[in-house]
Amino acid sequence: MGLFGLTQSEDDKRATEVRTGAVAPLRAERQKCWMTRDGYFACLDANNIVDALKDEKKAASACKIESAAFERDCATQWVTYFKKWRVQDIQKKARLKELEAQGANRLDVQTDFKPR
User: Fold this and answer.
1) CB count, 10 Å around CB of 69?
2) Where along the chain do its domains lie?
């Protein structure tokens, strides 16, 4: 550590670079991000919060520790993306459940293309 602790360790510097998007996260860093994201989402679920962006104050007070870990371990753009993705995923699942209740049939769709 430098004079009076003013310099960052290499790990802290790397974490800052990942959060800001200056470097791409490594596999272990991505896995750590996903793990803290899942913990944050579990906290939101336990507190009946769907949209952490819309209900920011409620989410911040209910999931303070999980939110801090999520924001520490993930790139800033990822945090926003995952929060938006969560809302869309919940809405999609609810819509599919409605359609199935109305008698819609689920179709298995292949999304990769095979050469002929």
Assistant:
1) 18
2) 12-100
